[in-house]
Amino acid sequence: MKRFSYEAKDLSTGKMVKATVQADTESAAAKLLLSQGFTPHSIKEDTDDGGLLGKLSGRIRTKDRVVFTRQLSTLIGAGLPLTQSLRTVHDQTQNKKLQGIIDDVIASVEGGKSLSDSFSQHKDVFDNVFLALITAGEASGTLDEALKRIATQQEKDAAMMSKIRGAMVYPAIVLFVIVAVVIFMLVAVVPQVEKLYADLKQELPFITQIMVFLANLIVNYGWLLLILLGIGVYFLRQYLRTENGIKQLDTLKLNIPMFGGMFRKLYMARFSRTGQTLLNTGVPMLDMLKITAQAVNNTVIAESIERAADKVKGGKALSAALKPEEYILPFVPQMVNIGEQSGKIDEMMGKAAQVYEDELDEEIKSISTAIEPVLMVVLALVAGSLVAAILLPIYGLVNNINLS
């Protein structure tokens, strides 16, 4: 289908509307608009894709998606037609890239496609969880509720990730300051000490010789070190995009000292919350497991969920299928088991998610508290080494002068 930009009069409101529509020909687009209660004034085939700059510019944040989803849920729940709801949300959206995507969705819906199919054309923005909930909402006639659950799910996930990033900010800043101070001392202070000893024809202490070597390395070959660092980072990033690299990084996250427990609780909260949302919307169990395996964003956890899904497909209860998996924390299958007995698996998964979200808050606080003394020890060792490398030679010179 081709895409046409049009200007038409909405017969129900008498207002002029500018938007896009998908159709095979211009006349087909005109017929489609007439059938939807619009009198077209101009229809023109849209051949401008925005160029490379248009495709690359702009970024859709989680907040943008949440606001869009909540607004669309409210309008549909109020009884407005789908296309009118989308146009209203489009006008209220400030993110230009998201506006362009909404334009495409409107054109696709007006072309006869379902809302889920229209959103699926933009999988880089709308993930599998989003699409599954939209599909279930359309099938059950509860699209507004499905959209509301999507927004809640996105908000909770974004809140968890924000807390984890916040816990990483302080140590990152301290480490950056330590590195900056070390480089400054090596480049600005240590060469002066070396020059002083050279003028007096004295031999530098061993620790100062090491500092001088590092200072000369930075001053004379700093450009080469930066190039090598850049090359190393590039190849590391390329490796981490491979299947083996992704799996190794995901395994490291689950087992890294101090942070491993935090990541495990994060993935359990994400699995449980996503599972609850999908089941609550009417998504079948096997589909739920397939989608949550992708939604947890960890290949190791995903493999555990997929193995459990195979067992469920063979007739095993979900709790029994999850229990032997190494990286599925025991509380999840316990709560699922209670849900199986009471017929409320979705509710029990929601409670499990809440428990892990609360525990994650405490874990982040305890990590933030524990990491401060560790950083202080590192800072003390670095500062001590620098002081020893700079002050020992000076004290040595003073003693030599006094003895002479």
Give your account of this protein's structure.
- The chain is mostly helical.
- Helices cover 75% and strands 6% of the residues.
- The protein is built from 16 helices and 3 strands.
- It has a 3-stranded antiparallel beta sheet.
- The longest helix is centred in the C-terminal third of the chain and has 59 residues, at 345-403.
The CATH architecture of the largest domain would be Up-down Bundle
Largest sheet: 3 strands, antiparallel
Q: How much β-strand is present in the residues?
A: 5-15%
Count the domains. 2
Structural class: mainly alpha
- CATH H-tier superfamily of the largest domain: Type II secretion system (T2SS), domain F
Give the class-level CATH name of the largest domain: Mainly Alpha
Order of helices and strands: EEHEHHHHHHHHHHHHHHH
Span between termini: 95 Å
Arithmetic mean of pLDDT: 83
Helix fraction, binned, reads over 70%
Strand-helix topology:
Elements: E1 2-10, E2 16-23, H1 26-35, E3 38-45, H2 51-56, H3 62-77, H4 82-92, H5 96-110, H6 115-119, H7 128-140, H8 143-199, H9 206-239, H10 243-255, H11 260-281, H12 285-295, H13 299-313, H14 318-322, H15 331-342, H16 345-403
Antiparallel strand pairs: 1-2, 1-3
Helix pairs in contact: 3-4, 3-8, 4-5, 7-8, 7-11, 8-9, 8-11, 8-16, 9-16, 10-11, 11-12, 11-16, 12-13, 15-16
Features:
three-stranded antiparallel β-sheet; Receptor-associated Protein; 16 helices; 2 domains; mainly alpha; extended
